[in-house]
Design a protein that fits this description.
The strands form six sheets. This protein has a 22-stranded antiparallel beta barrel. Strands 11-12-17-18-15-16 form a six-stranded mixed beta sheet. It has 802 residues and is mainly beta. β45 and β46 (760-768) form a beta hairpin. The chain contains four helices and 48 strands. It folds into three domains: 21-110, Immunoglobulins (Immunoglobulin-like), CATH 2.60.40; 123-225, Beta Complex (Ferric Hydroxamate Uptake Protein, Chain A, domain 1), CATH 2.170.130.10; 232-787, TonB-dependent receptor, beta-barrel domain (Maltoporin, Chain A, Beta Barrel), CATH 2.40.170. The chain is 4% helix and 65% strand.
């Protein structure tokens, strides 16, 4: 009922709003007098030939310029493959002026191909998004997706490789706009298995419209994959050799063939990474006044191999219809040998026993997905219907062997060795269908509406066994079969309008959720059935082309995933585990953002985020068994505010710098593990990226990051920083290049943390194998130029091409 009421109101408003005051307008046509879209036009001052404004023609060939001061001007139209066309000089004096058509003629040059060269800035602020452009960057060469994403402005990783945005958890991650439906360890595995050479950009999005999923309490990180638009056959091959404490390497091949209205594409990559992580965990547990201290030192030797592949076709079936079909797959195998030794005693300096643990993990992660997309342009006014169908299948198998031995001070076994093993197959199936409709209401207003349905099922069957008298026996209280299903049906309506210097966008999204967490082992079910409305609005004001303001509001949700809901323990070692909470509720957030852009370069963003039923990490322990576990709980409330500064600086002609500074204020208020938490903390993040053009063929980049110490919930995180440099040499053939990059040069990016809250006293020190030198060779083959057909006016490209 509320949705219908909003729709009625929006339509009523749209019919009464005034159109923007257009000062100068005109039309661009071809040699046959046919209207031409996507042509770039410039308003130029005739006295000094200064470009004052830019506009792109619409479907009907129309362009317009607003808010023009009185003076003498001319308009210039440019498009690849056509001669530049310039209007006659005209005098404007605050009266709407309609110019004669600009007729573009095909270029008479003998060249039939035009090579488009250019380099985007490393970081852009575009349409409310902070975009990290990593295509052709030496900092991206040879890295995986997780390495690249954490370099984006405002992004960081917590102790468990979970992504955070502006210092907060609850980030939604999408790939080419499609939700991954994964969090935590599996998302980290997916990103680590994504070849960085295939990534074009990383978009950081704080605001949301009604069209976007409401999931993601603090924002969205969208990974944009590379796409080729060249005519004919072309491809790209790269090979990387990396050296840290151990060797790493990867290769990637992408192919593309475009002929007329058909495009075939595919890619394959293989990575083989080996590294060592070291963890030192100090823990003190009290039981009736008697303390037991654990000093655990672990060495994790990890081998990680991934095959990733993609194949697809895009077909323009008519002038108004484009459809595409794409298949993606990846196969990842990770081997992890964990050599751990725990020194146990009444305190950290007095020893009475030693526990040695040898653990071997073998994990297979397989991902397959199909996508079908069809975009139909109903007419030339902009009416459009888009259908998107997705099917994804994840299969995860994790096997582990544990050998625990307890020794006394004389290095004699206190008891027989404890031999354990586990296997945990996980299956996830995801079905998603979306239908979006776009309806222009006028030249300045637009209405968009759509529906979405998603169905997610995950099946987790954990078997834990112990060897007794030479036979493997099931440990009942550790084995668990858990099935989680979730269905979300959503609908939305978005309205936007431009009224002079003011812009408004408002929408409403409704999501109906059905979920069922079923522990087959315990024969218990936790079902949920709820409907939520998620309003969003954005108001912008262009005080001047160099002073732009916007104010946005949105309501968001973060739903717990199946692993957080599974009531059983995932054992990290004999004394440490991660425990699910079947009664975990969704987390809701209301967020406000105020944005100011100066000279289309500098940006200041102020934000406030109020969360209720906040999902936070908590701890528990058994003082008799000396075990500790980590779980998630719904903290009462969490409030945070942030300010983000984007400061690009052209230091010199050869040196451009982008600087991002974030300050975050956080407050937690609620009960954790039976104790009250009410603390505040301030976090500072600084990210400085520099690009150097050393010569026509040599460029370099440098990245410096700093994270201040701060308190997150009950954890105190220490400060950390890191530096990364890279240099690229492009060879004369313009097809091959060589890139050398070194990450974490000074080995300073390790995250250390501690907690001394209530009865919990823990300190964690980490050394992760992140200082890596990588050498990457890239070769481009086939046609590398955009072919422009002289008589073609079809210049529209499908934005969501696969």
């Amino acid at each position: 009922m509320k949705t219908k009421l909003l729709l009625t109101v929006l339509f009523a408003i749209s019919t009464q709003l005034l159109w923007a005051a257009i000062d100068v307008t005109g039309r661009v046509v071809n040699e046959k007098n046919e209207q031409m879209s996507s042509v770039t036009t410039y308003l130029i001052h005739s006295a000094n030939n200064t470009i004052l404004k830019t506009a792109v023609t619409k479907e009907d060939g129309q362009y317009s310029f607003e808010n023009i001061a009185a003076g003498s001007y001319y308009v210039e139209a440019r498009m690849i493959g056509y001669d530049v066309k310039r209007s006659a000089i005209f005098n404007y004096s605050n009266t709407k002026q309609v110019l004669a058509d600009l007729q573009l003629a095909p270029s008479t040059n003998t060249l039939s191909e035009v090579t488009v060269e250019g380099k985007r800035p490393l970081v852009e602020n575009k349409q409310g998004k902070l975009i990290l452009n990593v295509e052709n960057s030496p900092l991206a060469a040879g890295n995986n997706g997780l390495d690249i994403v954490q370099r984006a402005p405002g992004v960081s990783l917590d102790n468990d490789n979970n992504l955070q945005l502006m210092g907060q958890s609850g980030v939604k991650v999408t790939i080419d706009g499609r939700q991954t439906y994964m969090t935590g360890e599996q998302l980290a595995t997916l990103l680590k298995s994504t070849d960085g050479n295939q990534i074009k950009a990383v978009e950081v999005i704080k605001s949301r419209s009604a069209k976007d999923d409401a999931e993601g309490a603090v924002g969205t990180i969208n990974i944009v994959m590379k796409k080729s638009r060249m005519e004919g056959f072309n491809g790209n091959f790269s090979a990387t050799a990396g050296l840290a404490e151990k060797f790493r390497g990867n290769t990637a091949l992408s192919l593309n063939y475009k002929k007329n209205n058909t495009t075939y594409f595919g890619s394959y990559s293989y990575s083989d990474e080996r590294y060592i992580n070291r963890i030192n965990l100090e823990r003190i547990i009290a039981n009736n006044g008697v303390e037991t201290a654990f000093d655990q030192k672990s060495n994790l030797h990890i081998k990680d191999r991934t095959h990733a592949y993609k194949v697809g076709v895009e077909q323009r079936t008519s002038e108004r219809n484009v459809m595409s079909l794409q298949f993606n797959g990846s196969n990842n195998v990770e081997l992890n040998d964990n050599d751990s030794k725990s020194f146990i005693g009444p305190n950290l300096t007095t020893l009475d026993s030693t526990l040695t643990s040898m653990s071997q993990f073998r994990e297979g992660f397989n991902r397959y997905s199909f996508n079908f997309n069809n975009e139909f342009k109903i007419d030339s006014t902009g009416k459009k219907l888009v259908l998107d169908l997705d099917w994804s299948k994840f299969r995860n198998s994790k096997k582990a062997d544990y050998d625990n031995r307890l020794f006394d001070l004389n290095n004699e076994l206190i008891r027989d060795p404890e031999l354990l093993r586990s296997q945990m197959p996980i299956g996830i199936d995801i079905y998603v269908a979306k239908l979006d409709y776009n309806q222009p209401l006028s030249k300045t207003s637009n209405l968009e509406t759509g529906v979405k349905y998603s169905n997610v099922k995950s099946d987790n069957n954990l078997l834990f066994e112990e060897q007794l008298d030479g036979a493997w026996t099931d440990i009942v209280n550790r084995s668990n079969h858990f099935v989680y299903t979730e269905q979300i049906t959503a609908g939305y309506i978005d309205y936007d309008n431009q009224i002079g210097k003011w812009g408004i966008k408002a929408g409403l999204r409704g999501e109906y959720t059905l979920s069922d967490g079923h522990s087959i082992t315990e024969n218990k079910q936790v079902k949920r059935d709820y409907f939520d409305l998620f309003p969003s609005a954005n108001l912008s004001y262009d005080a001047h082309e160099n002073h732009i303001f916007s104010l946005g509001y949105s309501r968001k949700i973060t739903r717990p995933n199946y692993r957080q809901l599974n009531p059983f323990d995932y054992f990290i070692d004999k004394y440490t585990s991660e425990r699910g909470n079947p009664y975990l509720n969704p987390q809701y957030a209301n967020e406000l953002n105020l944005n100011y852009t100066l000279y289309k370069k500098y940006t200041v963003t102020l934000g406030y985020n109020a969360q209720t039923d906040a999902i936070v990490e908590s701890m528990g322990q058994d003082s008799v068994k000396n075990t500790t576990w980590v779980t998630r709980e719904n903290l009462g409330k969490s409030n945070s505010a942030f300010v983000n500064l984007s400061l690009p600086v052209q230091v010199a002609k050869f040196w451009s710098s982008y600087n991002n500074i974030t300050a975050v204020y956080m407050n937690f208020d609620g009960a954790i593990a039976g104790s009250v938490v009410n603390n505040t903390s301030v976090l500072f993040q600084v990210n400085s990226m520099s690009s150097f053009k050393l010569s026509p063929s040599v460029s370099a980049e440098m990245n410096l990051r700093y994270f201040s110490p701060f308190t997150y919930n009950i954890y105190k995180l220490e400060s950390r920083w890191d530096a990364q440099i890279g240099i690229t040499k492009n060879f004369k053939d313009k097809r091959s290049s060589l890139k050398l990059a070194v990450s974490d040069i000074f080995n300073t990016s390790n995250q250390n943390l501690s907690t001394n809250f209530s009865s919990f006293n823990t300190k964690i020190r980490q050394h992760q194998d992140r200082r890596v030198a990588r050498l990457t060779y890239t070769y481009k083959f086939g046609n590398l130029k955009n072919v422009v057909k002289k008589k073609s006016t079809d210049n529209e490209e499908k934005q969501r091409a696969q």
